[in-house]
Amino acid sequence: MAGEHAHHRTYSVGVAAPAGTVCAPLADTTRRPLFPRSCSQAERLDFDGVHDLLRAWTELHGSVRPRPVRRTLDAVARRSDFRQEAAPAGPLLARAGSRRVEAGAPGRRRLALDHDVTPAQDVSQDADTALRAAGARSAAEPARLRVTAEHGDRLEHPLPFFEESVHTKGPAEPVHSFLCSLTGRPGRVAHVLRAEVAEDRPGAQAVRTETRCGGLVRSTGTARVRFPHALRITAEETAPQEPFQAHTSEWPVLSGERDVTVPTRHRVLRREDRAVSTAAARAAARDLPGGQRKTVPDLAGRHAEPAVRTR
Question: The whole model's pTM is what?
Answer without folding.
Answer: 0.71
